[in-house]
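As a warm-up, study this chain.
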Amino acid sequence: MKLSSPILALALAATVTAQGETRDAPIHDADLQAMVDKAVPLVEEICGRKFKDRPKARIGEIREIYRLMRGEFRAIYSHLYPKLDDKALEQLVDLEASVTAFSLFGKWIFARSTLYVLPETLKATLALDKGSKPDVRSLLQIVVAHELVHALQQQEIGLFDRFLAYRDVDALDAFQACVEGHAKFVDGEIAKRLGSTAEAEYWRGLFRYEKFRNRVPLRDLLQRSTRKLNEFRYLGGAEFVRGQWKQHGAEGIWALLKNPPRQTATIFRPDRYGHEPKPTVDLAGILEGLQVHFGRGRWRTLTHSFGEARVRSEVLWVEPEDLDPVLADVIASRELEASRAAITLKGRIKLLVFRDDSAAKRFLELAESSAQNERVNFAKQPGQKWNEFEFADEPDPKADEARVHRIRVKPTLLPAVHRLTIHWRRWGRVTVQVDLLNLKESKADVPKMLAELRQRLVAKKLVAE
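Now compare it with the structure written out below.
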């Protein structure tokens, strides 16, 4: 089962193929410790705090990292989703730990107070690409600096315990953008001082969503949310931290980490920090139970906020400046994700409430434009025998707008045809998106689901009768 991941490990994950190969000699624990000793005074100077103890570092192995990361993920997810049953929790933990452990370059392990680095994973990743060839040791030096910032964050603010305190996904996303943005900002400044600008630019490139486009059909479609969130947390977070740094210096960043934004919308609009608008609409419970309409059987569900960072990860193929004024008018959001045992079998409901009808209408126009642009992008992608895109109106007399998007893709190397069906509704200032991923429309009663949801919104006086 694949439940959406609201948190990426505090790790530097090589989630794209890299650019280069290495002929460097093997890197041992002594080499790594020398990198740590070199980075420590630079991290201390830029962060304005000193390590109380000399940070420990060692070369890690994937199996060991996998086991250690299971413990971290289990603690975080059990607090974030307290209603998740044990089986669903273990499946989520296992999936996230597996994906993360096999893509790490470095990781500060909280339980061990030790920096683990996996140079062989980095070398193997670099060898896959035929582009520029960054120096491996210089790149690892940046990785070490980044992870040491997390070590200092743990020392100064009790970072891991702060993660355990979160119960809201959008607030957690915003906090992680500050955490990762801090580390990303510092590692960039250190790279400048070390003259490793080429490695730093390569390193930034690993976090750009564009790296993933036109690679493998469907995979981009299914994983785009995680990838775009990765870009938001690291690069978007770094820009937010940079702005705060210019105004308040190093101590201002520690104050930020202790009192982070509650919404990802603030990362996109830094002027909101310190006076974020308070919620005026309560959507708690609004989607509960609707998963029964996805079909018979048991569904494991997650329900959480659907903040701006996640909304943007769904509407990728339009210009950000077109989205900015529309998303500034979102006043409430909620998402329900229902999954079965299969990773690619799920249903999702995404609900947005805008300040007025015009903003909701404009958002649907942009979503439609994004989907149309995505069809053009799909036609350029290798690895598929064929694909079909359908855009049509749906009959729904009670909706101001009702649309359906159907996408069918036949990958070259896989026997099955993959399907994604998206049903859109707009009721005044409310928009709803229902996704069916490899779920048969004949088995899912979407009209009944939408009718029940509409009545709940009417009861809350968010939709006119």
